[in-house]
Amino acid sequence: MASPFRYVVSDMDGTLFSPDHVVSNYTRDTLRKLVHEHGVTPILATGRHFPDVKIIANNLKKFIWGDGTTIDDAPPPSSPSRAPMMYILTSNGAVAHNAVTHELVFQTCLDPVVAEKLYQLLPDTEEVVNTNIYQEDDWICRIDWPEMMKVHKESGFQYRYVPNAPPRSAEPVPSTAPGGLSRGVAVGNYDNISKIFFITDDEARFPSLAREVQNTAASCGGNSVSLTFSASDCMDVMAAGVSKGQAIRKLFSVVLPPKEGRDVVAEALQASIAFGDGLNDAEMLTEVGKGCVMDNANPKLKAQHPELEVVQSNGDDGVAKKLRSVFGIPL
Q1: Active-site annotation, residues
Q2: Could you say which cofactors this protein requires (predicted)?
Q3: Same domain? 268 vs 180
Q4: Strand order in the sheet with 234-239
């Protein structure tokens, strides 16, 4: 009997992850069964940064396929069904990697002129909204908030604190960053920034901040940006056109071989099931053959897409339980 889907696409925080921001043993075992018994290719689609997700994906890869090591009761499979294959979409689809080889598939970065203006948008005296960027392998922020790292317990990913980055410069300038970071925005380089995001507990700040972001981008030669929310307290800004939905379509167009007379991208999208909980998941959930919203999802996402099935919460292993039901795996 043919498997109902060939691709399982999932957001991470609030979706595949438990409330403690880890992948539960039950969920990992489910993915392992899907890969070896049903030939499924997992795709992780997240707002997180690749260096962070790479560690998590490596652990998941070891659990599913084995590599001569043993982690958390995961012995190497006795007869792997096929060569490992998994993909990672990070920064809300701005960047795509092969999760097995870590090869970069594609990357779409913000215009450096726009990135500079947005990083410097808020005043040095700002204490409520923290400006963050993902640049190369770094996570850089303007306010030193250690509590932001609690969601990165598995990877141990940490930010670098650069409160007052210098203006954009053709040549590196001396860094004044605490801790001595001597690359990227710390020395006036605003290239290769995949995402800028603003974090605050004061969500009332977002409407006016969103307008400022859009107006600032437009003032830089008519540039536009893609703006979404990965969480209720986090507003994300990427290059125009970037979304998880667009990234899945682009991924399939790059990695799938063409077949005469067939639309392989459309077929792959139809053969995909996706899960998400945030507004940044909306395009992804409506792009695939079946989109599922978590019970714990942002209420705005549920209201915008009442046609999508609501599955159990991430705290109840909702993704894994739905997948087991769809693929006929005992709960």
Answers
A1: 11
A2: Mg(2+)
A3: no
A4: 160-161, 138-141, 130-135, 193-199, 234-239, 225-231
